[in-house]
Amino acid sequence: MLSDLFSIVAPVYVCAGIGFFWVRSGRRYDTELMTDLIFFIGAPSLVFSSLVSQSIGRESLETMFVAVVIAYVALASGAAVVLRLTGQPLQTFLAPMTFGNAGNMGLPLCYFAFGAPGLELGICFFVVGTLAHFTVGQAAWSGRPAWGAILRSPVVWSVSLAFLFLGFEVEVPRWLMRTTGLLGDFTIPIMQLTLGVSLAGFRLRHVRRSLGLSVLKIAGGAAVGAGVAGLLGLEGVARGVLILQCAMPVAVFNYMFAVRFNREPEEVASVIVASTLMASVALPILIGLLVPAVSPG
């Protein structure tokens, strides 16, 4: 069991560690280029190729989308209440407590833990989270609506195209499947390396608060995922993916928004570091609980 658990978690942290030590050794890594490649090419290709080739059934996919939307509403609502009660600034910490690392860390963990179906359902979570983060989340950071961002997101266009093929039951041309599959394949490793590179530049501050918020994000997220799964009657892989993705540590993208809108970026970076470190202990335990519940016998 321990060897199976290690084989699930190790690739994620090894790849991130390579990125971390690559930069710490003084070597160059063009984070802006890699982020653009992920955002504009890799992620949209991965989303499209995974959705159109999904093997879990359209009904399961739609149910998962509904579950993810409910989960994000619950995550944001719960975080808002706790932040208010503890006197923490909402515009600084609401988005970090809502949007976890569903891409860089969540997708590979869903894949290694639950196989191809886990990746497909994990992508549902990633898609909804990305759209919400760049619209509602950006509005939370800036204090004003940002609905135009949804029309400029490449992920939105790739999801729309995939749903057109699925909705009209049109076979995707082989060249398009192979191209998007090839481009999507580089996304997860580059995400992992970029995560490690980003963490290399962050520092841990206000340890007590950072650890407290990390507990809220990881333990509270897992509780929300379990609650929503129970509410909708999700079982097996769908339940495991929802709980696991809800429990992801704070997404690195939150730091970029904090810098852009001047919302205490150093404090946000500290929570990212603390939650990622905490996740290295918490997520293997969580996966150890979820995987046996999914595996038959």
Polypeptide structure, described:
- With 297 residues, the protein is mostly helical.
- It contains 13 helices and no strands.
- The protein has helices at 2-24, 31-52, 58-86, 90-98, 102-142, 148-151, 154-167, 174-185, 187-200, 207-232, 236-246, 253-260, 265-294.
- Helix 1 (2-24) crosses helix 5 and helix 1 packs across helix 9 (187-200).
- The mean pLDDT is 89.
Question: Which key phrases capture this entry?
Answer:
single chain, 297 residues, mainly alpha, Na+/H+ antiporter like fold, 13 helices
Chain-wise SSE layout:
Elements: H1 2-24, H2 31-52, H3 58-86, H4 90-98, H5 102-142, H6 148-151, H7 154-167, H8 174-185, H9 187-200, H10 207-232, H11 236-246, H12 253-260, H13 265-294
Helix pairs in contact: 1-5, 1-9, 1-13, 2-7, 2-8, 2-9, 3-4, 3-5, 3-10, 4-5, 5-9, 5-11, 10-11, 10-13, 11-13, 12-13
Which geometry do the CA atoms define?
Answer: globular
If you average the pLDDT, what whole number results?
Answer: 89
| Category from helices, strands and their pairing | mainly alpha
How many beta-strand elements? Answer: 0
Radius of gyration equals 18 Å
Residue windows where pLDDT falls under 50 for at least 5 positions: none
Count up the domains: 1
What count of helical segments does DSSP give? 13
Brief rundown of the structure:
The chain is mostly helical.
